[in-house]
Amino acid sequence: MKNFDFLSNINGFGKVYGFCDLAEQFQIVNPRISAQNGRLALESFVKIIYYLKNWQLDVSTDLFGMTTDERFVAFIHDDEMMKRIHYIRKVGNDACHDSDNEITRKKSFFLVLNLYYFVGNVMLTWNLIDELPKFDKTLIPGNRQQVSTTMSVTPTTTENIATATTASAETAAAAIPATEQPAAFISTKPTEISEAETR
Question: Which among 9, 14, 37, 106 could disulfide-bond with 23, CB atoms 3.0 to 4.6 Å apart, if both were Cys?
């Protein structure tokens, strides 16, 4: 059992679950791969929100543009959650674009933890899950022998990232039953970290 397994049996979410799962599984053994997949998961879920809300999405808009768009910020309507989103984006960008910034285990841990609550809150907002369990860091594999998946090549070019996240988001959004769109984002507060630790 792993923290993101609540996604594994939801129709249409196989690809985005894969990104989340790799982020968690490699958090300790390879923080850079963890952060790369965390960023892919974040962009996928941001695009899922855009598709479900029927917001026009320009193909040239990058993740920064999507997460700073006034429609997105107003929908999230939570400064702490926005900080968590931008933390994932920044660390993930450093990992994806061969930045000189080191991706430490601490950075990848907070990325995975923040991702867990963002993803979980998306699922709660659209009533795809009934509750989000507290994150359990003891489930994260501590060595390579415990990693149950084979290492896969993670797209790192801007074009490949956009293609991968668009495909995963379209599949997931299409699988969600058409219902009245939620007026507000459900934002639960993690108890494992303080606001200062996410800065």
Answer: 37
> Residue ranges of the alpha helices (H) in the chain?
14-25, 31-52, 63-68, 70-76, 79-96, 105-125, 158-175
Going from the C-alpha of 78 to that of each of 31, 32, 46, 89, 125, the distances in angstroms are 28, 28, 15, 17, 14
Mean pLDDT computed over 75-86: 96
Residue 148: count of CB within 10 angstroms of its CB: 9
Q: Which residues contact 123 (CB under 8 A, 6 or more apart)?
A: 6, 7, 10, 129, 132
pLDDT at 170 over 80: yes
Q: What is the pLDDT of residue 147?
A: 66
